[in-house]
Specification:
Length: about 280
């Protein structure tokens, strides 16, 4: 009589063990799916922050932060996407929220300062950077410090910060161009020309530096194009800039010659140069 009971217990035990194994297996599967979800979400976030349309990225991170408001990485993603979308006022608010998070870092303070500058709030940017310890030295921090010093016309500080920033990056073309433009606005044309040249040595495709270089040369009455990489369209645009610089210096005849050359050089109709030339000839 005991055998049927023992068999029943064994059967019940085997069913319990099977159920337990199934539960353990299910937990493993759930954990595995959660890990995959985290990896996929991380990859998607990276895509949204780099190659996705900025406004699509804003929509993605706005939804994500509503679902998981405690996640600072998603808050940063939203703030960065608003900067990329040039929605500067909203970006400031988003970075302010990030900075208030318990897990915020000095990087977040620097990014908030950057957002303030983009929104034209220079005083707030300066006050934000003042909160960052002086021992925290990064390229972005010093680039922003230089820009703020420029806005305050604190030239020695600006030069010092630009110099430090150049030494903290392997891609200094942009900051060299900014430094050159700072020198240009001060009337230090030869030094500006040198810095624009260095920027182009680092990145020969940077058209802003090419145009600024021509402005610096024009301000010194150097009315020949520098020996730099340029295609036909760029050559025409630079001749146009140089022609206007000559007119500004009072060298009107030279300016007309350069503008005519710009019109002839451009592979298509160059409306801006044509208008400038007509205005001079009619005047």
């Amino acid at each position: 009589m005991r055998h049927p009971i023992l068999i029943s217990l064994c059967i019940a035990g085997s069913f319990s063990l099977s159920a337990c194994e199934q539960r353990i297996d299910k937990d493993k599967v759930d954990r595995a799916f959660q890990e995959v979800d985290v990896i996929d979400e991380s990859n998607l976030s990276d895509i949204m922050l780099t190659v996705a349309d900025p406004n699509e990225a804003v929509s993605y991170f706005a939804r994500a932060t509503k679902e998981k408001p405690e996640r600072i990485d998603l808050q940063r993603g939203l703030a960065s996407s608003l900067v990329r979308a040039k929605r500067n006022t909203e970006a400031v608010s988003a970075w302010q929220k990030v900075v208030k998070h318990a897990d915020s870092t000095n990087d977040d303070q620097v990014d908030l300062a950057d957002a303030y500058i983009r929104a034209g709030q220079w005083k707030e940017a300066e006050e934000t950077l003042d909160k960052v310890p002086p021992t925290y030295e990064t390229f972005k921090r010093y680039r922003l410090e230089a820009m703020i010093a420029d806005s305050n016309k604190e030239w020695k500080k600006a030069d010092s910060f630009y110099d430090i920033a150049v030494g903290l990056t392997t891609r200094p073309a942009g900051v060299l161009n900014n430094w050159g433009y700072s020198k240009l606005t001060r009337g230090e044309y030869a030094e500006a020309e040198r810095l624009f040249g260095e920027a182009l040595d680092q990145d020969g495709t940077l058209f802003t530096a090419k145009n600024n270089l021509v402005l610096a040369r024009g301000a010194q009455r150097k009315y020949t194009l520098p020996v730099i990489p340029m295609d036909q369209v760029e050559r025409a645009q630079l001749l146009h800039t140089l022609g206007l610089s000559a007119v500004k210096q009072g060298d009107v005849a030279t300016g007309k010659t350069l503008l005519r050359e710009a019109v002839e050089t451009h592979p298509q109709h160059f409306e801006a140069a044509v208008r400038s030339l007509r205005a001079l000839e009619d005047g």
